[in-house]
Fold this protein.
Amino acid sequence: MATLGETDRALHMVDEAEQLSDKAAAMAPPETAYWLTPSFNRLNMGLCTLALGRYDEAVDHLSTGLAGLPEELHTAEWGWEHREALRKAREAA
């Protein structure tokens, strides 16, 4: 929604996702399911808030999400998008 210019809908979804993340933080997933953790979900929140021009929020979400990955995934190839988004967010903040 954010990249399509539907800012109001994107902001509503961000607010809803943040509330759901708070609820999810109280529930522990199986240890192998790192992608179900609130910190992992913050990676996508970071991409969204970056697209919305909320650079400080994007830095917070992306930093937390990347730091919350299991150590063996800190340099995973698929993480390039999030690392690049973090770099852009820091530059713009």
